[in-house]
Design goal:
heterodimer, A: 312 residues, mainly alpha, 72% helix, B: MetI-like fold, 2 domains, 11 helices, 63% helix, 2% strand, globular
Chain lengths: 312, 304
């Protein structure tokens, strides 16, 4: 009798803790690669740790790294470039182009619309290095470059190597052609979800295509528009992979996140300023955490959380 | 959506013209890689032979990199392919398994802190993980100092800095918020009765999970697997940052190395190596688009 009681108790305990073992691997990885790194970023940003001090001889220097950022002669340059890059890419591609493509592809035949949307997804699924390589050769100097051959020379302009010559335009284009597909997908499904009778009513009323966009479609996709704008602002602000491969920050393309990466992990001289780099990254981490919490609040993610029906 | 029909042929073709013009960089980029892969040299999109004759010089010689190491900076393309494949498969198996476990618990089990764990997953999903790269370097250096686990495992090297396993582990972690959220959504849609029946019949939670629930969400598993495999196959930044002792560790890092060589490399070979890495991605993309669109629509973390 006693044995049986013990057995049921162990069983009870094991069922009570089962959820923990289901979650254990995720918890471990999240602690190791999200929580710990956030703490490390903040902690190391308060030290002078670098490859010359090593992991043992560093000193605690409080907020000096942040003061250094504030007075660093290069700070205004990187900051302005980042703001300009995020704003231009966002307006013209991640939101603007995304909207244009989704509007057109939902108003032509279904097959063609599907084809063009698939085409626009290609940059996103193509390995970054290959994708950037394509752009490099589109802009390469004569006789190799495609832009020079098809557009510049026939129009009588002087061919040149376009990546250094128009570096800002290129980082916007390279990222924009990837970024546009995110908004495109979200906008397309939002437009397709607009009730049919409302769309048809606008036709019956004799609205032109532009009027229909302005007065019917845009008001309907207000929330997706806001979502894509905020979400992509954060992505653009922090991602630097494409720029790293395209110019490696040369030709005045060193955005803030790339600056942090170069200082801390990857530079030509092999002098890694972990403290300073982490301070630069910490600025972005804090912005990311704040925006992440705001998104959750405002996009009503909470409503997606339903209670499980089986009690244990 | 009904298209707006117009009788004027110009107005009718206008959206197509506009679309083609806007898509031109993508079209030209892919055309370039295709043409230059198979030609000796390329002026723009026109293949050119050694003597400079236009529309001549079609060749397969750019594919010599498959057996000639000197074409790929003395790295064996097969070894790099194997490395890339290990990362892709490791990431896929890891993400799918771990997300299925967590997704099930979050969808079906009541436990303290469930709501906070869910919101945490969501915050992490929108959090720009790339900003943590510098700090992750410290974590990997620390794991590397742990005996055996750090750098003493065959095939993947270990889980520390400068090992394939380390790259896999970081990739799994960064993909996890998306995976957990996706799997939870699929489990939410499985009928409760099925599971209740299994539990009442005395099936343990683990058996219910593995034998009853997992087979129900095969489409979700397929979608996440395909997506993760492609992410692993094309990943660049993580291997580039954390396998620094071997600059030519994967196909992506090799290609980057060739691209940034100061001495002029053979563009044909570059394009061929690129196409070689691209083919599996394209095949997957063409045949599994429906699955993938599911994930992209669920809000994949945009690289840009």
């Amino acid at each position: 009798m006693k044995e049986k009681k013990e057995a049921t108790e162990t069983k009870k305990l094991s069922t009570r803790l089962e959820w923990f073992w289901f979650l254990f691997p995720s918890l471990l990885l999240i602690v190791l690669f999200f929580f710990l790194p956030v703490i490390i970023t903040i902690f190391v940003s308060g030290t002078n740790m670098s490859s010359s001090t090593g992991f043992n001889n560093w000193k605690w220097i409080g907020l000096d790294n942040y003061k250094m950022i504030a007075i660093h002669p290069e700070t205004p340059k990187h900051l302005w470039l980042t703001v300009k890059y995020v704003a231009v890419t966002l307006v013209f591609f991640n939101v603007g182009m995304a909207l244009v493509i989704s509007l057109i592809t939902t108003h032509i035949s279904q097959g063609a619309g599907f084809f063009f949307r698939a085409l626009w997804l290609l940059p996103r699924i193509t390995p970054t290095v290959i994708y950037v390589m394509m752009w490099k050769f589109l802009g390469a100097n004569a006789p190799y470059g495609v832009i020079n051959q098809l557009f510049v020379q026939p129009l009588g302009f002087t061919p040149q190597d376009w990546v250094p010559a128009a570096s800002f335009l290129f980082i916007v284009l390279v990222n924009g052609y990837i970024g546009a597909s995110f908004g495109m997908i979200i906008f397309t499904s939002a437009i397709e979800a607009i009730p049919k009778d409302i769309m048809i009513a606008s036709l019956v009323d004799g609205a032109s295509f532009m009027q229909r966009v302005r007065y019917v479609i845009l008001p309907y996709i207000k929330w997706p528009l806001l979502f894509v704008t905020t979400y992509q602002t954060l992505s653009l602000m922090t991602s630097f992979e494409q720029i790293l491969v395209l110019t490696n920050g040369e030709f005045n393309t060193e955005v803030w996140s790339l600056w942090a990466y170069h200082r801390a992990l990857n530079n030509y001289w092999g002098n890694f300023q972990w403290g300073f780099g982490n301070a630069l990254a910490a600025v972005l981490v804090v912005i990311g955490i704040i925006l992440g919490i705001i998104y959750m609040r405002y996009f009503k993610f909470g409503e997606l959380v339903q209670e499980p029906k089986i009690e244990t | 959506m009904k298209e707006i029909r117009s009788r004027n042929p110009f107005t009718r073709s206008l959206p197509y013209i506009l679309l083609v013009v806007l898509s031109l960089p993508i079209i030209l980029g892919y055309l370039w890689i295709l043409v230059s892969t198979f030609s000796t040299r390329c002026y723009g999109l026109i293949p050119v032979d050694q003597q400079g004759n236009y529309f001549k010089g079609l060749t397969l010689s750019n594919w010599a990199f498959l057996y000639d190491k000197s074409k790929t900076l003395n790295a064996s393309i097969w070894l790099l392919t194997l490395n890339t494949l290990i990362i892709a498969i490791g990431l896929t198996v890891g993400v799918v398994l771990v997300s299925m476990m967590a997704g099930y618990a979050l969808s079906r089990i009541k436990f303290p802190g469930r709501k906070s764990f869910l919101s945490l997953t969501l915050i992490l999903h929108s959090f720009p993980s790339v900003t943590l790269l510098i700090a992750i370097y410290f974590v990997l250096r620390w794991i590397a100092s742990v005996p055996v686990i750090g750098r003493g495992i065959p095939l993947i090297g270990g889980f520390g800095y400068n090992t394939l396993g380390g790259v896999i582990l970081v990739s799994i972690a960064l993909q996890l918020p998306l995976g957990i959220w996706l799997m939870k959504g699929f489990f939410d849609n499985v009928s409760w009765d099925l599971e209740r029946a299994a539990l009442i019949d005395g099936c343990s939670r683990w058996r219910t999970w593995w034998q009853i629930m997992v087979p129900q969400i095969k489409p979700g598993i397929a979608a996440l697997s395909i997506f993760s495999f492609m992410e692993g196959w094309k990943s660049f930044l993580i291997p580039y940052s954390f396998m620094t002792s071997q600059t030519k560790a994967t196909l992506s890092t090799l290609l980057n190395e060739m691209l940034s060589e100061t001495s002029p490399v053979n563009y044909g070979t570059l394009a061929a190596v690129g196409l070689y890495q691209l083919i599996p991605v394209l095949v997957f993309y063409i045949f599994t688009q429906k699955y993938l669109l599911n994930i992209f629509a669920g809000g994949v973390k945009g690289t840009a």
